[in-house]
Amino acid sequence: QVQLQESGPGLVKPSQTLSLTCAVSGDSISRGSWSWSWIRQPAGKGLEWIGRIYTSGSTNYNPPLKSRVTISLDTSKNQFSLRLTSVTATDTAVYYCAREKYSRAWYADSWGQGTLVTVSS
Amino acid sequence: IQLTQSPAFLSASVGDRVTITCRASQDISSFFAWYQQKPGKAPNLLIFDASTLQSGVPSRFSGSGSGTEFTLTISSLQPEDFATYYCQHLHSYPITFGQGTRLEIK
Q1: Rounded to whole angstroms, how far apart are CA atoms A55 and B100?
Q2: Do residues B36 and B85 lie in contact, with contact meaning Cβ atoms separated by under 8 Å?
Q3: Measuring CA to CA, which of A34, A38, A113, B70 is 20 to 30 A from B90?
């Protein structure tokens, strides 16, 4: 049973960089069967897909965020990470990491519990 | 591609059959999923490829549709089904979700 756990600062100052890590247990992030993604959700609002990374290291990002987002893999630690630069209050949200499985498209079938990141001075 | 869910809010009773609809602003074939989210929890994948039931999800959940119109049906509501439901398309970037349908107990 795969488990994902987000970690990182809960408070980030405006204009700074948000950095989160997703530790994966119960499966290897190097297995080609999966891709690994980040999704966020502002309080009381809907879901926003941020991006994904494949085991090859290639990435796809949500175009509105693309200039500020980097997702990377650390196979030695079996984890993947999110960096979001130049944050503003609108980046305040619960951030989820997820494993995606492929069946005609990549679907998020296992999720972390989420971590709240607040952007405030 | 915009996804429009309806209704935004639904009040129903245990045992009811309910249907939630999601309309896409253009043809997305069957690159489509439904998720359930309970308060304070991460979303849970229910349906993928528009109509395939995710492993471990009760058979009272079903999905149908292709192209621009999709439905999620719960055949007989159980107490644990009261939650918010989101649709998602994966046809092209940006991948987007619907705004959600909140299902509450009548």
Answers
A1: 31
A2: yes
A3: A113
Write out pLDDT tens, residues A68-117. Answer: 999 999 999 999 999 999 999 999 999 999 999 999 999 999 999 999 99
pLDDT in tens, A15-74: 999 999 999 999 999 988 899 999 999 999 999 999 999 999 999 999 999 999 999 999
Does A109 contact B42 at a Cβ distance shorter than 8 Å?
Answer: no
Whole-number Å distance between alpha carbons of B57 and A58: 31
The neighbouring-strand residues paired with B18 are B74
How distant is the Cα of A69 from the closest Cα of chain B, in angstroms? 14
Please judge whether B93 and A62 are an interchain contact, meaning their C-beta atoms are less than 8 angstroms apart.
Answer: yes
Specify whether the CB–CB gap between A35 and A56 falls below 8 A: no
d(CA B5, CA B99): 6
Q: Are B71 and B19 in contact (CB under 8 A)?
A: yes
Asked if A49's CB is within 8 angstroms of B42's CB, the reply is no
In 3D, which of A36, A37, A46, A24 has the Cα closest to residue A93?
A46
Nearest Cα neighbor of B21 from B38, B7, B36, B37 is B7
Which of A19, A24, A86 lies closest to A55, judged by CA?
A24
Which of chain B's residues have a Cβ under 8 Å away from the Cβ of A112?
42
Q: How far apart are CA B101 and CA B99, in angstroms?
A: 7
